[in-house]
Design brief:
This protein has 217 residues and is an alpha+beta fold. The chain has 2 domains: 71 residues, Orthogonal Bundle (Arc Repressor Mutant, subunit A); 128 residues, Umud Fragment, subunit A, CATH 2.10.109. It has 3 helices and 12 strands, in the order H-H-H-E-E-E-E-E-E-E-E-E-E-E-E. Strands 3, 4, 5, 6, 7, 8, 9, 10, 11 and 12 form a 10-stranded mixed sheet that branches.
């Protein structure tokens, strides 16, 4: 069925998948596809991915956030990316009320985790933090987990970030939303309230790329 004609949207998604794999060496998330293809919602992306899967253009692993594979793509392309990648754990961050300071341990002396080459491109600046608290529990980030963050200069609304609150001299793990003249740092826990603050009071120190779960809980 792979010869069935694609809609314009499905063709755009398939081209984006191939381009993303060329650039990064690992698949995009559904939200990456939404933004990259200018699609109205993740549900529309998911609908079209199901059609691409049904017609034999892609394979999906539903339990993995980046579990997409383009059928017939040369897997040897991943060899262009070094691996595994050592990512230093630079301290702890609160997923709850802000904790004072992100540790400034030297990366050369820090504990570290390793990520496979299929997840990380050589051009990314990454570091890791241990999570303290449960304000992001509904986003499947729990106390004791390790979050891998990418150093970035800007983020989109809704992305999970390590945010530095200048006045409080504290860091917190939240989803960030810019709302006119204020910033909302939103927990993923229905029992907790968001933090509202002035835009000048917030610095984004990194965007969460993935989570390594603590299996000893």
């Amino acid at each position: 069925m792979a010869g069935k004609r694609l809609s314009d949207k499905q063709d755009r998604i398939l081209q984006f998948l191939n381009g993303f794999l060329d650039d990064h060496g690992y698949p995009p998330t559904v939200r990456d596809i939404q933004y990259g293809c200018d699609i109205s919602s993740t549900s529309v992306v998911d609908y079209n991915l199901r059609i691409l899967q049904r017609d034999g253009h892609i394979r999906r692993s539903p339990d993995i956030s980046r579990g997409l594979e383009v059928v017939g793509r040369d897997r040897s392309a991943v060899a262009r990316f070094p691996g595994p990648i050592r990512v230093p754990i630079l301290g702890a961050i609160a997923a709850g009320q802000p904790l004072p300071n992100i540790s400034d341990i030297s990366p050369d002396n820090a504990e570290s985790v390793e990520l496979p080459a299929t997840m990380v491109s050589k051009n990314r600046q990454l570091y890791a933090l241990r999570v303290r608290g449960q304000s992001m529990i509904d986003a499947l980030v729990d106390d004791g987990d390790v979050v891998i963050l990418e150093t970035v200069s800007s983020v989109r609304n809704g992305e999970m970030v390590a945010a530095w609150l200048k006045n409080e001299q504290a860091a917190t793990l939240k989803r960030v939303y810019r709302e006119g003249g204020r910033v909302r740092l939103q927990p993923a826990n229905s029992q907790m309230q968001p933090i509202y603050t002035d835009p000048d009071n917030v610095e984004v120190h990194g965007r969460v790329l993935t989570v390594i779960r603590n299996l000893e809980r």
